[in-house]
Amino acid sequence: MKILFIGDIVGKGGRETVRALAPGLRREYNCDFCIANAENVAGGSGMTKSCLQAVFDGEVDVCTSGDHVWDQKQFADEIESLPNVLRPANYPDSQPGKGYGVYVSESGANVAVLCLLGRTFMAVGAECPFAAAERIVPELRKITPIIIVDFHAEATSEKIALGRFLDGQVSAVLGTHTHVPTADQQLFPGGTAFQCDVGMVGARESVIGRDLQPVITRFRTGMPQRFTVAEKGIVLHGCVVSVTDNGKAKGIERVMRSLP
Ligand SMILES: [Fe+2]
Ligand SMILES: [Fe+2]
User: Within 13 Å, how many C-alpha atoms sit on residue 105's CB side?
Assistant: First the structure.
């Protein structure tokens, strides 16, 4: 089977681009499952049920998230009614929502999705992602060998280390959070597909999805700025992973597409 995985969807431009392009990409690459990181879908920070609707309209099956998951206050109440939306699994159990789930693909195969958050150069508050994976992955493997991990983290080293740690145990470890796609897509020896970061659905003329000038000013002056979301020239970044019935990855291909 083939799985389309889309990077952090930023703001209205991002979600409308997913709505417009993702169904066609699913057909073009013959994918029967689609995952997208939606932590920036609401105004560039956080998620709401209504903003996620555009993403689900784009035939995305599961939305993952990351450190921005709770930026929209109302979402703590909304997530419980959204079984196809995941928060980081290594956040405390006391948080609403869940961090992994098993879903049925178009072809009828069970696909497990696990969302984990990194800790290097990131806000603290999450359990060790390695320990969380060590606990959760064997449970998921009792149900299905097809397991996709969204590792939402800053440091390439932490991402590669977790990918190598899980090689042979999951079908893919795909990075999100930096919004910049990396050129290191590969298959590890045990059969796990890996890419440090799949990128974002956001504006090319931007600093990771935000308008240029406030970000440059902030870096130059250290003064607080309002980081507006850049809306023009949106590019969709993601990847397509091919997985055998026994959960081994046999291919990973980067995808980059923009609206005509
Ligand atoms: Fe993000
Ligand atoms: Fe993030």
Answer: 23
